[in-house]
Amino acid sequence: MSGKYPALDRKQIESILKALGFKQKSHKKTSHAQWEGYTKGQRRIVTVDHLKSKKEKYGPKLLGKMIQQSGLTKKEFYSYL
Predict the structure, then answer these.
(1) How many CB atoms within 10 Å of residue 9?
(2) Residue 18 and residue 49: Cα distance in Å, rounded?
(3) In this predicted model, what pLDDT tens digit does every residue of 54-66 receive, in sequence order?
(4) Of 11, 38, 52, 65, whose CB neighbour count within 10 A is largest?
């Protein structure tokens, strides 16, 4: 992912989810966090993998999965960046 849709890190993903009105379901120290919210009237759960650091970028496959879980298109998701 480059150019129009660059790779994102955890901090950017969480920022987008917060802007969409998603809330983190639990604050336990685990390898993943689940964010719950509503997109277009439908309840959604987005699982965010906790990488080694908040600055590490997600690969296209994992990033695509999170975007899909959010219920938005890639273009819509990136518009909240």
Answers:
(1) 15
(2) 16
(3) 779 999 999 999 9
(4) 65
